[in-house]
Write a structure and sequence with these properties.
With 294 residues, the protein is mainly beta. The protein has 3 helices and 19 strands.
Length: 294
């Protein structure tokens, strides 16, 4: 473990800051890390895993075919240990002070584990030159999205408690909020790189349970009695048969929101990108038939 004062300084400058609500899981076989042993008064010495050399991880996706484990390099933050251990410290591993230096490394999975309350044990290693820090801004953007806690659409209509009729237009719309529709903005930082991401729903695909699907480019239009039996101008569906034969006498509906996420590196000379996320919600709707009495 790092000394308390050194660890505090390192975490202040090197860690990824995330909310505890972000997804966190320990990496069973990280590229960076390994079996920890040694008796240094400064650190716990961790041996490097295969695929690393002098603290540098290989690039590109890799898989250990023998074990079937993913060995994809992680996004990590590297700092020069200050003060440097004395020459007698085993951390030098046969090298001498001045012949390179001792560095510490904390990776994304470690920082996420810390947010969930896990103990942080930075990897410590010798390197002839300061290792390059490879920060993937899109991965940081995805971490920012995790902080947003996005959910599926908040369906306002159709109502589960209501009943709709065959041949009568049904209006569909959703309630808008930062977590169910957007816009929603969050940031994540690592090794001096800060990425800001903004997410907003681009479209909602409705699966109506009768084999029909409808794609709506907006939240839909809220129905009012003055519209009568008009068709929704933005998002609606008209059933041609009742739901009597369905389980529970209702059609099962699924609304799938496609979120567009735009991200950019703060002060990053225009470095930016875009990706999509999807979230789902389910509901049920009863469709009856108007009976004419003669």
């Amino acid at each position: 473990m790092l000394k308390r004062s050194t660890l505090a300084t390192f975490l202040t400058t090197a860690m990824l800051y995330v909310l505890p609500a972000a997804s966190a899981s320990a990496d069973d076989d990280p590229v960076i890390g390994g079996d920890c042993s040694g008796a240094s008064s400064y650190v716990t010495v961790c041996e490097q895993q295969p695929g690393t050399s002098d603290g540098q991880s290989q690039s590109g996706d890799q898989t250990d075919k023998g074990s079937g484990k993913d060995t994809t390099p992680q996004v990590c933050s590297v700092e020069r240990l200050d003060p440097q251990p004395p020459a007698s410290d085993p951390t030098w591993d046969g090298h001498k002070p001045g012949d390179g230096a001792i560095y510490t490394r904390v990776c994304l999975s470690d920082a996420l584990g810390a947010a969930a309350g896990a103990q942080i044990v930075p990897q410590v290693f010798w390197a002839a030159e300061a290792p390059a820090v490879n920060v993937d801004p899109e991965q940081l953007a995805r971490e920012a999205v995790d902080r947003m806690l996005l959910t599926g659409p908040n369906i306002a209509s159709p109502r589960t408690a209501g009943q709709y009729l065959v041949g009568v237009p049904m209006w569909m719309w959703v309630n808008e909020s930062p977590t169910t529709y957007g816009p929603n903005t969050a940031s994540a930082s690592l090794a001096g790189v800060t990425v800001t991401a903004t997410a907003k729903v681009k479209k909602i695909n409705w699966s109506l349970g009768d084999g029909s699907t409808v794609t709506c480019s907006g939240p839909g239009t809220e129905y009012a009695a003055t519209y009568g039996k008009e068709v929704s101008p933005t998002c609606g569906h008209t059933y041609s048969r009742t739901s009597a034969s369905q389980t529970g006498g209702k059609y099962a509906l699924t609304a799938t929101a496609t979120w567009t996420v735009n991200w950019q590196v703060v002060g990053g000379a225009g470095e930016a990108g875009q990706f999509t996320e999807t979230r789902q919600s389910q509901t049920q709707v009863a469709i009856g038939e108007l009976q004419v009495v003669r």
